[in-house]
Amino acid sequence: MKLFFAIFCCCSYFFSYAQSCSCLDEFYFIKDHIEKNHGGFNKKIGSTNEPAYKRFTDQLEENIKKDKSEKYCIAWLKKYILYLQDHHSNFTPGSGKVIKEDSAAALEAFFKSKEYLSTESINLNNISWIHPWKNREPNGIEGIYHTPDSIYVVAMLKDQTDRRDYVAVILDSKTKLWSQGQVKIELKQVNDSLFDAFIYLRNHSMNYEQIVYKNGRLEFNGWNKLGIPAKNKQAAIDKELIRFTVLDSSTTLLSIRSFSAAIFSKLDSAYKNVFPLIKKYPHLIIDVRNNGGGSDWSYNALMPLIYTDPFDSDVVEYYSTPANIKAYQDYDDQLKKSDPFTKPVFTNAIGAMNKVSPYSFVPTGNGKPRRITYTKNNGFPEKIAVLYNRNCASSCESLLFEVMHSSKSLMVGENSGGYTGYGNVMTITTPCGNQLSWTTTVYRNQWKYEFVGIPPQYKIPDNETDWVEYTRKLLHR
Questions:
Q1: Is the predicted pLDDT of residue 11 greater than 70, yes or no?
Q2: Domain end call among 198, 225, 252
Q3: How many domains does the chain have?
Q4: Average pLDDT score, the chain
Q5: Is residue 217 located within the same domain as residue 345?
Q6: pLDDT tens-digit profile of 197-210?
Q7: Which residues make Cβ contacts (< 8 Å) with residue 177, sequence separation at least 6?
Q8: Residue 210: which domain range?
């Protein structure tokens, strides 16, 4: 189980600078702070002069300098954080704006604002040329896209400049904040399978993400391309917290959607009720798709069913730097202010970090892996499959690491979420008034799976619609 001490937002807002603050100032601060204090950077990249990293940051610095209006500043800074491949680290702008669309005065003020007036528009006096696209070959990037709720309909056009290769222009909008011809999205090709996406949100603020281009199509969450048949729809994933089902005369299914510590007693009670039934059948599928994790204690009761042989745990290492020690101390100080009777969290960590040289790793405990054993279940089930998807994260992935050591278990699905390698998120306010979150601990071995996820032994084919049935058949082989 990992500790997180920051709440961060997935949305982007307007980037508001202090009068003396520039995007370049912010970039230099973030880059310096990460290089000195991010455990993953120092484990994975290792040096500020590592060639690929140096090329990347030099290019990013050049882009920031060219962007005189600082319109793309959020994108450049988020792009830097994304390079770390750490799901927990984040950059969050410090201010936002919500426009009251039912207020004439608010709309009038917004339409006069710098943000609205700086939105690029492309003249679409004659849009009849768009209609033939409705019957065009669906593969490729150009075409008509819409959001599932049809609030926005855009035309994606090839439009190559220094900053973009494609542009999406509003054809129709159900919100008053966007008008026909305004630029909603810009795409810049990174390589044959990846695009940088600069996306303007409802309030015209920018968000940045990377989009995969695969089999002639953009995998663009939140947007559907007109003329493309819907993907094979997966059978619905049960949303019940925990459910037990008998699939056939030899196979049962146990679906668990959360390992939250808050529902431990409910899970524990359910386990006690269903385990006697599970032990009557030779095959078991444990379905943890869409399980975002919680507490390792919430899955421990499953381990006697899965366990076959002893194995070693991973070791967590603190990255000892003056800033990380201060962040831990500040956290404990704030905790004491809010509740004088609460015990500090980081006393042992701070003590251990102070004993080693700055900018080095120090393991928790004695630095040696723990030998993990469980009481072994020698009867049914004899064969187990753990079914998971990319929404299996954190403690759900901790379960997967333990399943890896079971000789009677199969891992089935797709790569997990990749929230496994780093922890203890700390947050500071940058000189420009924004929030920077970074991780301060690294798992000695599991860090390799951060961001990319844990691969299954058996990957579900792209055209498979019923993952449970596919897994059931695997167990019968």
A1: no
A2: 225
A3: 4
A4: 90
A5: no
A6: 999 999 998 899 99
A7: 99, 101, 107, 110, 116, 202, 203, 204
A8: 104-225
